[in-house]
Amino acid sequence: MSKRRVRYLPGKGISKITLAQENQKLERNQDLTHYEDTFYQCGKCGTCRTVYKDAYWSRICPSGEFGKFEAYYLGGKNLLTWAITTDKLKWSEDLAKIFYQCSVCMACVQQCQIPEIHTYAGEWLMAMREEAVKLGYGPMPEQAQYAEHVMVEKNPYMEKHEDRLNWLPSHIKQSSDAKLAYFVGCTSSYREQNVAISTAEILNSLNIDFRILDNEECCGSPVYMTGQTDKAKELAEQNIKNFKDAGIEQIITSCAGCYRTWEDTYPNKFGLTHEIEVKHLPEFIRSKLKTGEMNFNKDVNMKITYHDPCHIGRHMGIYKAPRDVLQQIPGIELIEMTRNRHNAWCCGSGGGVRSAFKELSTFAAKERIEEAKETKAEAIVSCCPFCLNQFKNNIENNDIQALDLSELIRKTI
Question: What is this structure's pTM?
Answer without folding.
Answer: 0.94
